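hiii, so i know i said id send this last week but things got crazy w the move. better late than never?? heres the sequnce for the chain we talked about at the cafe, plus the structure i predicted for it. fair warning i was half asleep when i ran it
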Amino acid sequence: MFDVMTIGSATKDVFLYSKAFKLIRSEKFETGVGECVSLGSKIEIDKPILTTGGGGTNAAATFSSLGFNTAIITRLGDDSIANDVLAELENFNVNTSLIKHVKRGNTGYSVLLTAEGGERSVLVHRGVSAEFKTTDVPVSKLKTKWIYISSLGGNLALVIKIARAAKKKGIRVAYNPGSLELKQGALAFEPLLRNLSILNLNLEEAQMLARTKSRDIKTICKKIHTPELTLIITDGPNGAYAHNDHETLFARTRNIKAISRTGAGDAFGSGVVASLMKGLKLQDALCVGTINAESVIQSFGAKNGILKRWPKKSLLDQIRVRTIRQ
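okay and structure toks below
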């Protein structure tokens, strides 16, 4: 019996940092800001940093580092990159026996162009992580107390199947969906919500599921929340919200300077879930998640700053948490 299983992607990540990457505001870019270099120029970069990422492996690293018996279900190719992913998971003492190895498949690969301040653009090849299938997840054989699901390459039907089966077995499920799942719309998520214990979204994703442009957190939570669901909503460096049947909380960040923001969302979500698994109150769980994310953004690589031990109370008290009146 595992304490927790993570289900999600695995990638090789290559970080490229240069002061030559300039952020330029323009309506031509989907996000309103472009990360640019001079066409035809030769760009000097700092030493490339090679590590591994993907929501499944990042969350697994947090859970195992904080003392939980952790396994991962993911998809790897049969290339050298797969060996790098396996080696790092084993360094974190994560059980890899349930990983699907795809013959002649390519393991996911990302290049992260990182500018000053930690903002980055990601060039991603999802590889075999884009093709999760029902046969990759032996639902009838899941022996764990918790399941933490990140993006499954858009296979929302598989997430629903896992969550339903888990609830019947008394297994609690946390879910941090990817963009491909969210694009399927709020109606597609309705059968899922009542089978989850935790749903972790950023503010824009929460607005999408709530089908509102309002940034009012009470309005958003009212539209998404179902009984027994804990809703976590992150708002980048501004902080994060948590809402359940009893309370709505907001935790501020400490404005830690970011070197790279890659992995911050995974670190926050898995830190919150690990805390609730340990039996901490929701307020303290928000603090642990915030501290884990702030630790990660202070170095390159989604796993390099992951907490290796539980924060002391003096550190938790540095995170300001307030109650939002219903």
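btw The first helix runs from residue 55 to 65. thought thatd interest u
miss u guys!!
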